[in-house]
Amino acid sequence: MWRRVSSLTGLLSHSKPSLLNQAPHRFNLLEAFTAQVLTRAKDGASPTVRTPFVAFVLGGPGSGKGTQCEKIVETYGFTHLSAGDLLRQAISSNYEDSAMIFNTIKEGKIVPSEVTVQLIQRAIESSSNYKFLIDGFPRSEENRVAFEKIIGAEPDVVLFFDVPEEEMVKRVLGRNQGRIDDNIDTVKKRLEVFAALNLPVIKHYSELGKVQKINAVGTTDEIFDRVRTVFAAYEAKFDDFVHIVVQKAII
Ligand SMILES: Nc1ncnc2c1ncn2[C@@H]1O[C@H](COP(=O)(O)OP(=O)(O)OP(=O)(O)O)[C@@H](O)[C@H]1O
Ligand SMILES: O=c1ccn([C@@H]2O[C@H](COP(=O)(O)O)[C@@H](O)[C@H]2O)c(=O)[nH]1
Ligand SMILES: [Mg+2]
User: Which residue of 189, 218, 236, 238 shows the fewest CB atoms closer than 10 Å?
Assistant: First the structure.
């Protein structure tokens, strides 16, 4: 759960502010919150605070994360943030670290956490949604710790798309989208990095009871049926909100 919610630094349901950009402006936000409470109190309605829902979507290269995220977006209204897509966009928009990001992706290695977390943070800040799929991140324990520290949140659930290596290689080599890392040499490196650095993240969240492992072999519809089954247990939390109890001050 997002720890910031408990300190009321965000997420008023009506004005739809972004999630994180209020953190440095906590005082202003609390002022806004008070104003909101008063406005709503006049209406007699109970004021509410939205609680965000975050799903990390993990799996090896070509396991179908992006494909399933598209379906989740269509069905459940999540905002899809693919860390790889954000990094590729950063390269094409001449971001200050473009060359480093390009070379790191080409080598199948992991871009430094501060770069990726900043891109994710900006994407979250510019969204008015409360439901996020963070696809292909965190890639390492270092990524995970940086995200939890900077964003101040843990995921509600981690989807792990499980596919045998041979199938992942086949899918990546057949993708044909012109990606610089969709070649046999880089795929081998990405698989090694996945096993060495990404599986420990999955292990960490498994120990916290947050991982939902999905057999991701089959047609995309068959796999999405499995996602639906998993999400059935979480759906009530997707659009969760908390009622604020307003108490009169005793002076
Ligand atoms: N269930 C499936 N069966 C066969 N091919 C699939 C399946 N799901 C996705 N694909 C195809 O496999 C390729 C990789 O899928 P996708 O891009 O969704 O994977 P990914 O996990 O996001 O990969 P990456 O980590 O490299 O971004 C795509 O060409 C996609 O169309
Ligand atoms: O958090 C991340 C996510 C991605 N990368 C780099 O990008 C490529 C491609 O990522 P996809 O998720 O497969 O689109 C990945 O191999 C890494 O080199 C990253 O460094 N950190
Ligand atoms: Mg992808």
Answer: 236
4 Cβ below 6 A of ligand 2: no
Prediction pTM value: 0.85
Atom of ligand 1 nearest to the CA of 223: 1
Q: What is the average per-residue pLDDT within 18-43?
A: 40
Residue 239 vs residue 138, higher pLDDT: 138
3-class secondary-structure state, position 136: coil
Residue 63 has pLDDT above 80, yes or no: yes
Fold of 3-243: Rossmann fold (3.40.50)
Question: 11 pLDDT band (50/70/90 cuts)?
Answer: very low
Distance 176 CA to ligand 1 centre (A): 11
Residue 116 token pair: 């990726």
Cβ of 62 less than 6 Å from ligand 2: no
**Cα–Cα distance between 235 and 228 in angstroms, integer?**
9
Distance of CA 18 to the CA centre of its chain: 15
- Which atom of ligand 1 approaches the CA of 219 most closely? 1
Q: Is the pLDDT of residue 48 over 50?
A: yes
Neighbours of ion ligand 3 (CB under 5 A): 66
Q: Is the CB of 116 under 6 A from ligand 2?
A: yes
